[in-house]
Amino acid sequence: MKVGVIGAGAWGTALAIAAARSENEVVLWSYDGLYKQFEDVELPHTIHVTSDMSELKETDAWLIVTPAAFFRETMRGARVHYNGQPIIICTKGAESATGQFMSEILKTEIPECRDCGALSGPQFAAEVARGVPTGSTLSGTVATLDAGHSALSSLYLVDSDDIIGTEICGVGKNAVALICGYNMVASAGENERALLFTRAWNEVVDLGLAMGAKTRTFLGLCGIGDLFLSATSETSRNFAGGMAIARGEPPAGTVEGIFALNGLINRARDLGIETPVLVEMKSKLKI
């Protein structure tokens, strides 16, 4: 199988390595032809890095791993090279301005795509690159699930048909991890941190259910699994970013939780869903 990976940051490069480890050829695209280099991990020879999107046309499946802020622009540019492949969204985020999730943007920018899905779970990129056992929820159509298992057989994948629920879990955990990092520094104590953590996640679940997500999805790898990983560890960029903001420091790198929090609040407002904790935390974070 030939797998196209769009986006060569830490997560995109890690997935490209996982796909190569699953005995696939890989075309790894980035806008500048560069990719993330992991310490003590060599890029497999079966990965071809390119800045030419036309090389994605002859692949059998696409994994989209571009940051949420650039997702729409990247999909718009990729459409001319789309050749009917199943598309698996590996970006965890919502568009800040519109509150749209990546699958909704994909339907707008590549409307001819009939087989799409989402991959989400407790996944630190460096560990995936090193081959540490990793599990994820894979949601989508039957063709998308088949493509995902072939592309990423080196990961432990649990199938689901709940695409929007899988996405909301990924977006929500980013926002909640940001909040938890902030409160690790700014809260009065552990009781308050647990209170805000639980209430914030409940608001994410309320939004998800209003959009048709399934309750069980929030209990799976993409839900409680990813939430546990991201909202309790300084290895998480969102958790670390929240801590930095609480200390009055600029967060390091791309902090998807900032875009996620804004997107969730905007979407909840449009649907008439109350999110007092998310709104309050946005004000405290000054984002």
Q: What is the second-level CATH architecture of the largest domain?
A: 3-Layer(aba) Sandwich
The name CATH uses for the topology of the largest domain is: Rossmann fold
Residue share in β-strands: 5-15%
Number of helices: 11
Q: What is the share of helical residues?
A: 40-55%
Show unreliable segments: none
Count of beta strands: 8
Largest sheet: 8 strands, mixed
Number of domains: 2
Which CATH C-level class of the largest domain is it?
A: Alpha Beta
Superfamily at the CATH H level of the largest domain?
NAD(P)-binding Rossmann-like Domain
Radius of gyration equals: 18 Å
Question: Strand order within the widest sheet?
Answer: 3-2-1-4-5-6-7-8
Residue-averaged pLDDT, rounded? 96
What structural class do the secondary elements suggest? alpha/beta
Separation of termini?
43 Å
Strand/helix succession: EHEEEHEHEHEHEHHHHHH
Describe this structure in words.
The structure is a single chain. With about 290 residues, the protein is an alpha/beta fold. It has 2 domains: about 1-160, NAD(P)-binding Rossmann-like Domain (Rossmann fold, 3-Layer(aba) Sandwich), CATH 3.40.50; about 165-285, N-(1-d-carboxylethyl)-l-norvaline Dehydrogenase, domain 2 (Orthogonal Bundle), CATH 1.10.1040.10. The chain is built from 11 helices and 8 strands. It has an 8-stranded mixed β-sheet with strand order 3-2-1-4-5-6-7-8, with helices on both faces. The termini are far apart. The model has no long low-confidence stretch (mean pLDDT about 95).
Spell out the blueprint of helices and strands.
Layout: E1 2-6, H1 10-21, E2 25-29, E3 47-50, E4 61-64, H2 71-78, E5 87-89, H3 102-109, E6 116-120, H4 125-130, E7 135-140, H5 142-151, E8 156-160, H6 163-186, H7 190-210, H8 221-230, H9 237-246, H10 256-271, H11 276-285
Parallel strand pairs: 1-2, 1-4, 2-3, 4-5, 5-6, 7-8
Antiparallel strand pairs: 6-7
Helix pairs in contact: 2-3, 6-7, 6-8, 6-9, 6-10
